[in-house]
Structure prediction request, 141 residues.
Amino acid sequence: MNCPKCGASLEQDAKFCVYCGTRMENVNEENTAADAVKKEAVRGEEVGKIAASGKKTERVEIGIEKAKLVRLLIGSGFIIIGLFYVLTSGSTLPDAVFGADSYTYIYRGIIEATEILASIEASLGWILVAIGTVIDMKTLF
Prediction:
């Protein structure tokens, strides 16, 4: 190590310059800070070179691939659940006729209500399929 004031050659762990008396602790702290700034600048240049060359680190690529896989699984889950609702929706009540007219009309009203609910269920299933398809398409393209 050299004294910054007089240029004399000193031991690495010297606290004072033996020739001019300059305190070396402040110089060491300044040198350490300057070294840290230089290292950060070099690191920044390396990162800049990697970014300019278009290369990605392996860790970033793995993270992107995992995110794509998760989105594909979520989209596929929406599609499967939606198709399940579409395929299983429908009225299971038989269309029967009773002897009394009032019961027949009430029963037919119940059947119509269940058919409306079944169509709503099928519509919701198609909406889930559409959402899953959009998620998958955005992930793939």
Remarks:
- Residues 58-140 form one domain.
